[in-house]
Write a structure and sequence with these properties.
mainly beta, Lipocalin, four-stranded antiparallel β-sheet
Amino acid sequence: MRRNLWMFLAFLLFPVLLQAEVIGLAWQRKGVKKPEQVVYGVDLRTGNVVWEHRFGEEVNFVEKVGAGFLAGCGDGTLTLLEPTKGAVVGTKRLGERGEEVNTFRGEFAAGFLVSSHDEAFWLVSPRGERFGLCASGANAAGR
């Protein structure tokens, strides 16, 4: 009976032990005209880079969320990256007229709250659907 219990526990825990804890890091090259920005997935146990994703625009933040890694960019896009291989799950253009997605506000049951400074706020589902936009001050009048 004990042997069966240990085998059952090993069967349940083995996949968890094999999974690497990965963090996302953004790196930008300074001094280069229109530099390409790279987000790296780094295995915390080994320190090895396990994947990378190149962006053509400035990456303002990279946050680990339940569905992977969320990257907000200077061109007004929000990109969700798959956590184990760094593949793009989806990209959504949120910003208009020079608005960049530059602040991660939090992850909630309905999705992710991001903003462009303190002027425009977007609630986006994990599937990339934009639920709402809230603009403050002068920006609100133009929408």
